[in-house]
Design goal:
The chain has 218 residues and is an alpha/beta fold. The chain has one domain: 3-Layer(aba) Sandwich (Rossmann fold). The chain is 27% helix and 28% strand. The chain is built from five helices and twelve strands. α1 packs across α5. The longest helix has 18 residues.
């Protein structure tokens, strides 16, 4: 990023961490996200002068100082929290690893082991960043993540168009549980690789790219 950017006076909303979709009081569907990338993004935005709010699932990483954290558990809770805040944000970054599905039935009591197969039914969770971008006001910038195991750049570009986003960060599952990351930043005009580094360094590159779009449209 050649030109210096700032988020002073801006409001940034970030989703972070995993979500949990309960099956019964002790079992749930989730993933390996620690929330470290979302919190690194929050620190990077804070350091550029932004007011930062993080809607966080049950993360294991520690939240940075100087940012507001709204704790949630499920995808539907995250959706409601984002809907309540997205219109006031200048920049929305969806870094949470949201469960794609939830169970149709949540048992009030622990399901007991029994002979034979247990058949479970799941339904799709809402697409939180698509929902937020569909309600955008002029001047807002929306950033999504595409975690893929193959053809990451291709799928990321498709998500950029389908969801009405300004930037998509393509990465792989190896980033979830590691302290390091690498990514490709996809816009409608170009793709730029961010070399492997600490999550803090990669987060700074992502936030700088998003801030440049917000300030300069590129």
């Amino acid at each position: 990023m050649s030109r210096r950017v700032s988020l002073r006076g801006r409001t940034v909303l970030i989703t972070s961490g995993p979500t949990r979709e309960s099956l019964d009081p002790v079992r749930f569907l989730t993933n390996a996200s620690s929330g470290a990338m979302g919190f690194a993004l929050a620190a990077a935005a804070r350091d550029l002068g932004a007011r930062v709010c993080v809607v966080s699932g049950p993360a294991t990483a520690a939240a940075p100082r100087g940012v507001d954290v709204v704790p949630v558990v499920t995808a539907l809770q995250m959706l409601r929290a984002v809907r309540a805040r997205a219109r006031r944000a200048d920049l929305v970054i969806a870094a949470a690893a949201v469960s794609d599905w939830r169970f149709t039935r949540v048992s009030r009591h622990k399901l007991k082991r029994r002979a034979g197969a247990l058949r479970l039914t799941v339904v799709p969770n809402p697409d939180i960043i698509r929902d937020a971008a569909s309600r955008r006001r002029p001047g807002q910038v929306f950033v999504g993540f595409a975690l893929e195991t193959r053809r990451a750049a291709q799928y990321a570009r498709a998500k950029l168009v389908a969801k009405g986003l300004d930037l998509v960060v393509a990465n792989g599952p190896e980033n979830l549980a590691s302290g390091r990351a690498r990514a490709t930043l996809i816009t409608r005009q170009a793709a730029r690789a961010v070399p492997e580094g600490t999550k803090a360094r990669v987060a700074r590159a992502i936030v700088a790219a998003a801030a440049s779009i917000l300030e300069h449209g590129e």
